[in-house]
Amino acid sequence: MSGGRSGASGTHPGSGPARRTVLAAAGAAGLAAALTACGSDDDSSDPGGDSSAPGGDSSGPGGAVLGSTSEVPEGGGKVFGDVVVTQPTAGEFKAFSSKCTHQGCAVRDVKDGVIICPCHDSRFSATDGSVQKGPATEPLAAAGITVDGDRIKRA
Asked: Helix, strand, or coil here: 93?
C-alpha cells in the first residue's frame, strides 16, 4: 500500500533501534566483564589476600609487599608496578606514582637522585617528586609505603 517504503520503517518497524539496543547491551556487558576482571582482589575465597604479591591486597596488616630494600640503591630507585620507590639517603625511602604528570607515561629510571620519564625526558626529584625538568609541570604524586625489616610494603 505504501509503495516504495522498505527497510527499518517497512516490514520490520523498529529493527534499527532493536539492533542498536542489542549492540549497546553487548558493549555494556563486555565493559562490565572487563571491569570485573580488573577489580580488586577482594575474593571471598582468599579472605586475607596475598600480601606477598605486587599489587596484592593492601587492606591486610602492613599492605602488599612491593619489594626488598636491597633492590633500591642509595641515591637511586626502582619502579614496582605503579609505584617508584627511591632511597635519597641511606635508609630513607620515599615513594611516588610511576605515572608521569606530563602525558601519563610510566617513569623507568632513577639516577643520581632524579626520576626520569623516557617519553619526553621529564625529570623529577627522588626526594620529593618535584619537577626538575619539563615538559611536566606538576610533581609526581606521593605514594604511601612502609618499611618492615627489609620489605617495602604499601601503606
From this structure: strand
In a domain, 110, yes or no: yes
Q: Are 94 and 88 in contact (CB under 8 A)?
A: yes
* Closest listed residue to residue 146, CA positions, set 39, 31, 69, 38: 69
Q: Please check whether residue 116 lies inside any domain of the structure.
A: yes
pLDDT band at 142 (very low <50, low <70, confident <90, very high): very high
Q: Which domain holds residue 142?
A: 65-154
More confident residue, 37 or 61: 61
Nearest to residue 87, comparing CAs of 30, 78, 3, 136?
A: 78
Which among 54, 78, 72, 75 has a CA at the least distance from the CA of 64? 54
By the 8 A CB rule, do 127 and 96 touch? no
